[in-house]
Amino acid sequence: MSIELANYIVKVGLEKGAQDVIAIVTRSDEHMFRFANNSLTIVKNWSRESANMLIGINKKTIVVSLTKLDKDTIDRVVDKVVKTSKYLEPDKDYTQLPGEKFEYKSIPDTYDPKIEALENASEYVDAAINAALKEGAEKVAGVLVYNVGEKFLATSTGIEASEKGTSIKLSVRAFCGEEASGHGVEVSRVLSRFNPERPGREAGEYARRAVNPIEGEPGTYETVLSPLVVANLFGDVAFIGASAFMVEAGFSFFADKLGEKVASDVLTVYDDGRYPNGYGSTMFDDEGTPTTRTVIIEKGVLKSLLHNNKTARKFQTTSTGNAGWVIPHPWNVVIEPGSYTLEDMISQVDNGIFVTNNWYTRFQNYREGIFSTICRDAVFKIRNGELAEPLKGLRISGRMLDLLQNISALSKERVQIQWWEAEIPVFAPYMLIKNVNFTKATL
C-alpha cells in the first residue's frame, strides 16, 4: 500500500503545479530492551509510518515531512507548500530530477526473517550482561534495539523503488568501582552475524582494567585508537570532509584538495551503500539513484567527494548515489584493514596512550579541521610496549588533516560501529597514530 501512497503524493504535487516531486514513505517496527544494574528493566515496542516529500516548482524547492498520511492531509499540505513557494526566491542552481530509469539489485545480508520473527531478544541481553560480569565488571547497563523497516520511493520522472530491511544493535556499558567503565557495541543486519557476548566481554575487560585511574599528563603521544573512537572521527571525515555540499559551503577540511595527498599511505577509505550487512546499506538514495561504492581516500590521496544530482552538476560530475535532498551523505564508511593485531600495535609504542572511547567531538574551525574530543571510559598509558596504568581527564585536540597524515598502522580486525556517538556506520579497525596532542579535559 505504501508505494501507492508515494505515487499519490507525486500525483497531487504534479496536479498542483510542481515540476519535480519525490516521495519517500517509510514504515518500521522497533523493539527496545533496556537494562541496568545487571537486569532487564524496560521493554518497549514502536510502530512508525512517515512520508517525506520534495516538491520543486519554478526553480524553488521545499522539503516536508508528514506523520499523518491520510489523503486529505496530503492534499492540504501539498497545496500549502505550492502556495508558500510563491514567496521564495528561485534557486540559481536548481537541478531537475534525472529522467533515466534504473535497475536495483538486492544487497546480501540486509534482511533476515529471523529478526522479524524474533521472540527471545532478552536472551541476547542476558548473554551480554553475563559476558561482562565474567570479565570482572560489577555493574552492566545498556540497550538492545532491533528493527524491521520498509521504504518506498516514487518520483515524478516515473521511478519506483522499494526495499525491506532488518537490523539489530547492542550497546553495553560496564562499571567497576567509582570511576572505571568500559563500552562495547555490536551491530548487524542479520542474526547469524550478531554476537552479543563480544561487546559484553570488551566492556567488562576495559572496566576491570580501568580501576583507580590517575590524571593523565598533557603532551604529544603515539596513540592507539579503538574502533569506537575511529568510527566517531571517520564519520566526520566522510561527512564533513567529503560531502560535496560541505565543500561548497566552506565547512570541509578537504576543500580544494581533490587529487592531493591528505592522509598517510596506509589509509584507504570508501563509502559503500551496498556493503553486505552494512547498517546503512540501501539499494537507492533519496533521489532514486542506485547506491554504489565510492572511494574517498586511496592510499592517502583524496579521490572523490560524495554527490547528489545538484552537487554533481555544480562540480561537473555525476551523482555518486549519496543523496540527501540537501546534503549528500555517506551510507557505510569502510576503512580498509591493515596487517597488524592490536597487540602488535601496542608492542611498538614505548610512551603512548590507548583510548577506548570518546565523546563530545567538536570542531572549533570546520574549514581548517581543528577539533577536540574528550576521552571516555577506559584510557591506558602504554609503556615499553605494554598497557600500564589507567588514565583519566584527557582530551584529544588537533587538526584532522594532521591526524590523517600521522596514521602509521591499521589492524586486521574491524568492527562495524553505529551508536549515538557514531551515527554514521563505520567499519573501523584499531589505529596507531603518531604525534597525537592531549590536553586536560573539562566538561
Descriptive key words:
443 residues, alpha+beta, 20 strands, 10 helices, PmbA/TldD fold, six-stranded antiparallel beta sheet, 14-stranded mixed beta sheet, single chain, 22% helix
Descriptive overview:
- The chain is 22% helix and 40% strand.
- The strands form two sheets. Strands 7, 8, 9, 10, 11, 12, 13, 14, 15, 16, 17, 18, 19 and 20 form a 14-stranded mixed beta sheet that branches.
- It folds into two domains: 2-208, PmbA/TldD superfamily (PmbA/TldD fold, 2-Layer Sandwich), CATH 3.30.2290.10; 213-440, no CATH class.
- It is α+β, with helices and mostly antiparallel strands.
- It has ten helices and 20 strands.
- 49% of the residues are buried.
- A hairpin with a 2-residue loop joins β19 and β20 (422-440).
What is the element layout, followed by pairings?
Layout lengths: L1 H14 L4 E17 L2 E19 L2 E7 L4 H14 L28 H4 L4 H14 L4 E17 L4 E17 L3 E9 L8 H13 L4 E2 L3 E7 L1 H15 L2 H6 L19 E4 L20 E6 L2 E2 L6 H6 L18 E3 L6 H6 L3 E5 L2 E8 L4 E6 L3 E5 L2 E7 L1 E6 H6 L1 E13 L2 E19 L3
Parallel strand pairs: 7-17, 8-13, 12-20
Antiparallel strand pairs: 1-2, 1-4, 2-3, 4-5, 5-6, 8-20, 9-10, 9-12, 10-11, 13-16, 14-15, 15-18, 16-17, 18-20, 19-20
Helix pairs in contact: 1-2, 4-5
